[in-house]
Amino acid sequence: MTVYLFAGPSLPRTVRERCAGRAVVLPPVAAGDLPRLRVRPGDTVGIIDGFFHRRPAVRHKEILDLLASGVQVHGAASMGALRAAELAAFGMIGHGRIFTDYHRGVITADDEVALLHGTEAEDYQSYTEALVNVRYALTDAATQGLLPAHLTDAILAAAARLPFVERTREAIMNAARESRAREQDLTIVDKVLRCAPDAKKTDALALVEALCGSGESPATDAERSWRLRETLHLRQWRSAARGSNDPEAGWVPEGQVHRLAQVLAVDYPVFREHVALRVLAAEHTATRGALRRPEVSGQAPAGTRFLGADSGSRRVRRTTRDAVLLPGEVATTGTEGIQPATESDQETLRMAVVKRLRILGLLAPDATADPGLDRWCTAAERQLPDSVRTGKAAARALFPHPALEWNDPFLDQLKATGAYAPTRKRLIQCLSFHQTLRQQRPTLQLAQLRTENILAHFAQRWNQDRLEDAVLERGFATIEDFVATARSFYLYDKAHPDNPPLSLQRQQPAA
Asked: Rounded to two decimals, what is the model's pTM?
């Protein structure tokens, strides 16, 4: 069992270092961090601190995803206490006084545990006061008779009105003076605030003791009576979390490899049509199950499996690495890609796609084309034979970006044919370029890039006057969809005009 612990300003450095021997200690959690953990059922995640101002806060669904997979999740002190109170009914385990008060509704404002602090290199030095610590200090002082309750209530109300980034001890004392309190009471208030116990630290230590102490971790007694619903957003978060760290570029999302190829690879339109048609034909064959296992001369590639009810298919086969092939095609381990089949096989493939579209209701029972699908064809392609035109349209229309979060056959094909490695290398170069650019220009935002500049660059790059046709060929429904994806690669591509062309298919030897 592995314990993961997200901690920052609530836990002293000495304690974090001591925990490192028994847990994987990580900085405060933020949105996207939990899906990146390589957790297994039985592992434990402890959340103490979490970002929420400059970075999006950890999402409830991300925690539910862990709980649904058999991972215990604990929370205390700060963001952990908030999320534990909100998700206790689903099995998240809370620790400490702050969690209890949130869970019971004694405290309701999220910003009571918020504070402004320094970086990890600065040991998360606090610059403001956590309102929850002020609350407990003043409440305890009133309970002990040191201060009148009406005064502590007035000071708490005034402190709560302050933005958390301005909630310093000095600002709180100024608010107390405006309450017209007696001078002797103000002296007590000042002393109480200066000597206030750090409730967040106390609760954080309680969680650490529970997870990293000598005893066993507490188990939840909440019965799992709920089912996690797979949503598009959850799929997108998981997709963004699939990848690996590069020493220079940082996190390299796997899905971005396909996105970069879609924008920068010179032969992506051919690649996309090749993969999409074979996937649709394979679906048709698997659904119908009426064809026999093919008799193909020679030995099939190792690991090849045939699709269909009888595990057979006359025209389409798929390797265990998800390369979709036709008879006579070869999936290579290098960057050569897939060699084309004969024109006869291509027509058989197109007709299998047409039959699949009929089953899906996208074509009439006897039709081989449809005006709705023609919208996905360029002006020149609308003069092509029906089956060819329909195949091109299907390759673009039936694989929108949201659907690829569930299953991305293009990414699978990149991996299966060896084109993944050089494409990922180009992505790493792009990410490293952007890291350097952010250091030079910290205020630069990709969203601020002018759309007309992006379009002008790629019109010149592709030597295309009709960009609407060019982006259709690459699987984008609109110019706007293309620009949204291309923003991530535009500056890098513009700054490196001498880069060799990125190709996904077989490289012909030089003459």
From this structure: 0.69
